[in-house]
C-alpha cells in the first residue's frame, strides 16, 4: 500500500432520511392548596360562614386533574429511555446523536448492532476481514439484482455512521475502490473497479455467469472529515437468480494453468505467522513470463476462507526477487482457502486459482 495515497472525492452527498428528536422544557412544580372549609369575616363576627357545596365540588375536580397531570409528567420523566432527555437550551428538531436522532448511537466499528432492523455483526477478529456489512463506522449498502447470464450493473454506496454517502477515498493500488465478487462455493471470481458518481454511488457493469449466492467485498480507504484515512473491507451477500448447483472445492495444489501460462508458488502458510509465498509465472515454453505492473505491482493476490468466506488481501513486496513475486500471507486459522492471483502479460489480466490447506 503506498505510504501517501492520493485522494479522490465527489461533490454530492445523499443523506438518509433522518428523524430529529424533540425535547420538552423542564417542568416547573408548584404548590396547590385546596381548602374544604374556610373562615372569613371581620373581627367580632358571631358565627361560621356557610360553604357553597357546588363550589367545593368544582374545586375538588380541578385539583384532582392538576394532580393527575403533575403525577403523569413525573412518571414519564422517570421512565424516559436513556439519551431521550435533551440538554438545557437545546433547539427542538436538532438531533444530537446522529441522523437518527440518537436512536442508533455506538462507537464506530465496535460490537453487534442493527441498521434498519437487520442485525450486523463485526468480523471475528482473527485476521480475516469482509465478514460484516458494517465496520469501523462505515456500512456497505448494495442496490443490485443479478440474473445469471444476463448483463447487469453492480451498484452500491458506502455510508458513514451518520448514514451519509461517503465521497472521499484514497487511491490505493492505483484505484480508489476494489470490488471482489466470489461465488459462495468459491468457483466464480471477479475483480472489479467501479466508478463513483457525485452522489457517492459506485457502479460497474457485470454479468454473473453462474446462478446462486455470491459475496461482494468492497476494499477501500475512506478519508474522514478530519483527514484521517481508514482502510476498510466490507462484505455483503448477493444472489444471482437461477438454479444453484454448488461445486466441490478442487484439491490443494501449488500450481495452476490459465491460457497457456502456469503459475506456481513456494512456501507453507502457518496460522498466526506471516510467511512469504513466492510466485512465478511461466509461459508455454517454460520460460519466465514477461510480467507487467498491474495495480501498482507485479501481481495481486486475494485469499478467501472456505465456509465463512473470510477475506485476506495479501500485499506483495514492491521489488521482485528475480522472476518471482513475493506475497506475505498470515493464515488466521486452519482450514481450506482459495487463492486468486491476478497477473498481467501483454496488456491482458489473467487469474490463476489455487486451493490451499492450512493444518
Task: Describe the model.
This protein is mainly β and 359 residues long. 7% of the residues lie in helices and 37% in strands. The protein has one helix at residues 53-78; strands spanning 6-9, 113-115, 118-120, 134-135, 138-142, 146-147, 151-159, 168-171, 177-183, 189-192, 195-196, 201-207, 212-223, 229-241, 255-258, 261-266, 274-282, 300-305, 311-314, 325-330, 335-345, 348-358. Residues 10-51 and 65-125 have low confidence and may be disordered.
Explain briefly what this protein structure is.
The chain is mainly beta and 359 residues long. Helix content is 7%, strand content 37%. The radius of gyration is 32 Å and the shape is globular.
Brief descriptors of the model:
359 residues, mainly beta, five-stranded antiparallel beta sheet, five-stranded mixed beta sheet
Give the helix/strand layout.
Elements: E1 6-9, H1 53-78, E2 113-115, E3 118-120, E4 134-135, E5 138-142, E6 146-147, E7 151-159, E8 168-171, E9 177-183, E10 189-192, E11 195-196, E12 201-207, E13 212-223, E14 229-241, E15 255-258, E16 261-266, E17 274-282, E18 300-305, E19 311-314, E20 325-330, E21 335-345, E22 348-358
Parallel strand pairs: 6-14
Antiparallel strand pairs: 1-8, 2-3, 4-5, 5-7, 7-12, 9-10, 9-13, 11-12, 13-14, 15-16, 16-17, 17-20, 18-19, 18-21, 21-22
